[in-house]
Amino acid sequence: MNIYLRLERPEDYRESEEVMKEAFWNHYTPGCNEHYLLHIMRDSPNFVPKLDYVAISEGKIVGIIVFLKSFILADDGSKKEVLSMGPIAVLPQYQRMGIGRKLITHTCDLATQMGYRAILLCGEPNYYSKVGFVAAEQFGIRTAENKFFEALHVYPLYSNALNGISGRYYEDTIYDIDPDKSVEFDRSFPQKERITGTPTQKRFAEVFAMQKDYEPIQKHFIDSCTHPLYKDFQELYDTSFPIFEQRTHEQQMEAFQNKAYKLLAFTEGNVFLGFISYWQFDTYCYIEHFAINARLRGKGYGSKLLDCFVRSMDKIVLLEIDPITDNISEARLRFYQRCRFHENPHPHKHPVYRNGYCPHPLIVLTTQREISPKEYRQFDADLRNIVMNFKH
To answer: Where does the record place the N-acetyltransferase domain (predicted)?
Structure first.
């Protein structure tokens, strides 16, 4: 079967609305509103005509996809423009032939070229997870009512598009359909029976119930090995750093006794997200160790927690990373650069934590700006005389 895609034209509007009605009738609810939604959304200032595509087979429209501009109100108060996909429809007799996937792939590619950040939609998890969408909860994105919703999905359009961005997703208010106007609009179409209790309606009710309250990220200062989160910290610490970069148990206990040392842990609900161990000095803050729960890496938590930490400091934040020797170390440097850290030129070796190892070269990174040679010498002295001055 030959299927090709093209932009929708004004002369297509009625046929497209008929396709929408056929695809959604009795699907989510008795009857449907999607054909009326399509009719009115073209007049919205947020409608994106360049992404309004139809699928054609043998001269007739068999599928359609449309988009509106929407936004995420991020937890830091900023607005991030995104796209809302949908409705998307394929005539029932043409479903399961890859037409929906073709429409999605084509328009997602175009949206990337147009410079959009991400696409969001509410839909069946079992389908959209197969066409590149992931649960919005992975990025900390909730509904406008501030709930995590199983049906809310996101398609980032480029690498790290949503790193550090979490918040509430707001659609165009045009999606809030007036049911009376929808019924009136439907009278101009051939009438169909409204059926209650279909399998798809029951599934929709199940998915709609898959919502849970958002629990914001909590901060916890661990001040001893008896703290309830110390075990989580220790397990992540042991698996995140090579042995020669780890404090011994005795050295960790010594650090707890120093007023300049802080061990900050992060949780979200009952999930341990990660930690930052750091030292407060007069003119700067030194991050000794920073790690994210391995199951949550790549989901934006690292940049979010680090950004939150840096914003809480009124001074330069300094940390070290491995020299650039491979793709992994290059990616690590890019991550910190995206978090607004600057690479410093000062030759640097970190003192040893344990006997039998040698000082290892590291790169110094700082927020705000590069530090001067004098400032670097002060850091090096503090590192040797305070941070790494062990009794054991």
So the answer is: 3-158, 220-392
Place of tokens 């406008």: 144
Report CA-CA distances (Å) from 13 to 5, 53, 322, 363, 387: 15, 11, 58, 59, 69
* pTM confidence score: 0.66
DSSP string, 256-308: HT-TTEEEEEEEETTEEEEEEEEEE-SSEEEEEEEEE-GGGTTTTHHHHHHHH
HSE on the CB side for 186, CA within 13 Å? 21
CA distances from 360 to 193, 245, 305, 374 (A): 75, 9, 27, 22
pLDDT at residue 311 above 90? Answer: no
Give the burial class of 126: count Cβ atoms within 10 A of its Cβ; 0-12 exposed, 13-18 middle, 19 or more buried.
exposed
The whole-angstrom separation of Cα 133 and Cα 162 is 13
Give tens-digit pLDDT for 226-274: 999 999 999 999 999 999 999 999 999 999 999 999 999 999 888 999 9
pLDDT greater than 90 at residue 103: yes
Query: 213: burial class by Cβ within 10 Å (0-12, 13-18, 19+)?
Result: exposed
Task: Decide if pLDDT at 75 tops 90.
Answer: no
Of 7, 31, 4, 5, the C-alpha closest to 20 is: 31
Report pLDDT for 106: 98
Domains and CATH numbers, the chain: 4-213 (3.40.630.30), 217-387 (3.40.630.30)
Q: How far, in Å, CA of 234 to CA of 243, rounded?
A: 13
Tell me which residue has tokens 């959009």.
116
Dmax of the chain from CA atoms?
86
